[in-house]
Amino acid sequence: MKAWNMYIDGQWVDAEERIDVANPATLEVIATVPKAKEKEAQAAVDAASAALPDWAAKTAAERSALLMNWFHLIDEQKEEIGRIMTTEQGKPLKEAIGEVGYANSFISWYAEEGKRIYGETVPASAPNKRIFVTKQPVGVVAAITPWNFPAAMMTRKVGPALAAGCTVVVKPSELTPLTAYKLAELAEEAGIPKGVINVITGDAAAIGETWMTDSRVRKISFTGSTNVGKLLMRQAADTMKKVSLELGGHAPFIVTENADLDKAVEGLMGSKYRNAGQTCVCANRVYVHESVEAEFVEKLKASVGQLSVGNGLDEGVEIGPLINEAAVDKVKKQLKDAISKGALLETGGEALSSEKGYFITPAVLTNVSDDMECMIEETFGPLAPVTTYKTTEEVIKRANNSPYGLAAYVFSQNISEAITISEGLEYGIVGLNDGLPSVAQAPFGGMKESGLGREGGHWGIEEYLEVKYISLGL
Ligand code: ADP
After folding, report:
1. Strand partners for 386
2. Where in this chain does the record put each Aldehyde dehydrogenase domain (predicted)?
């Protein structure tokens, strides 16, 4: 069992107390990490603040070269990082290694994009004046990340922040901190100077508050629950930090009358059951046109029935455990509520008798109505509730009837209908005949209570930049 330390100012440091990290597939404690409090949180900001002037003064090409060193080391060790991730988070090894590749694509993409932080000159209103507009790093960035994508949620923030010339303090989830520490180890090996990346684990509320009240932290980038996101935004108000929030979702998945049903099922399998349904862009509510429901459900049941559930380190496993007992209880509660209101359980929803961990088999519900909990609250588990609809207008209205607005999916072969639905959806991301839309070069983020700002693409780096206007009198 490894005892990991925190990474502050280029040093690996301990704290007075420690936290156990357990494998959700076996419930074994696999490592311990330090439990930082205010003192260590502040030390991390001291380090990031001290490192800022030199890092910001480097040329974009110099920062890019260091980011690419990091990228290559991560790429060389993707299997090992994947293994660490599977043992702390549960997702199947193949998916974990896939996540490392996805996470790394943010580093390489922003290593390039950092070279394109262009300014502008604007025609002045007087002949003896000139208007210059430049961009500069916002300063020290706090990044607080969740457990469902332990590598990608870190690099999606740290990649653009570093490329922009910012330094960072990172707090991964205490449930999955090891991947983040491994990435920090590789950043050190890559030659990224001390203090530029600092990673700590511990008392989340104490760390969050320390960072949010420190005026040297100029930006918070958070991915996690809507409640914590709202708290951080309130805490950030007093020092007027820039805020990026990627919060909960409740994605509708719409299958129209003329959809290619095989493609729609394939899309739903990726969107719903990847990471055992624990992603914020997971399909949560499936709306199928009433004329194709029977055929769609048959095909879906056949595909779901083939999914292999088990320890993510075992060959061929496609669905690992959920992260903890509360996650399993939430799925069970939603199943019970739906069944009590008339839904039919077509398959799944059972524990695995052969395993100790937090397993639940992938479930499909039909005869679902909009008043069931699973149609209102984020599931974060492998449960697909299927309901039917009659008209395009109706399905857009029902899909939008949610405080969330992160991702939505539409499967249709009719271009007019597909565009009408896509444009009518109040969601930041629409997967149109695509169940897996997330890539480094595209903007990821939500509307309404799903958050603020966008990560990815050229939009993502703007979140770490301030615009400066220089008015020059000749
Ligand atoms: P989830 O339900 O996905 O675990 P959370 O919002 O609880 O979502 O967790 C996301 C991240 O926010 C984690 O790193 C967690 O430790 C952190 N977190 C939880 N509570 C707070 C808080 N009060 N202040 C700052 N960060 C917090």
Report:
1. 286
2. 12-470
Tens-digit pLDDT profile for residues 382-433: 999 999 999 999 999 999 999 999 999 999 999 999 999 999 999 999 999 9
Single out the catalytic residue among 166, 280, 282, 374: 280
> For the segment 292-324, what is each residue's pLDDT rounded down to a tens digit?
999 999 999 999 999 999 999 999 999 999 999
352 and 380: one domain?
Answer: yes
- Structure ipTM: 0.99
- Please pick, among 95, 99, 113, 246, the residue that the annotation labels catalytic: 246
Output the six-digit token pair for 164. 């922009």
Number of domains present in the structure of the chain: 2
pLDDT at 152 over 90: yes
Q: What's the gap in Å between 27 CA and the centre of ligand 1?
A: 21
Cα–Cα dist 54/229, whole Å: 31
pTM for this model (two decimals): 0.98
Distance CA 376, CA 403 (A): 9
Let me know whether 312 and 418 are in one domain: yes
- Is 166 an active-site residue? no
Select from 33, 228, 235 the residue to mutate for testing ligand 1; criterion: most ligand atoms less than 8 Å from CB. 228
Domain of residue 34 covers 2-247+450-473
CA dist 117 and 468 (Å) reads 13
Please check whether residues 310 and 404 belong to one and the same domain: yes
Q: Ligand 1 center to residue 207 CA distance, Å?
A: 11
195 assigned to some structural domain: yes
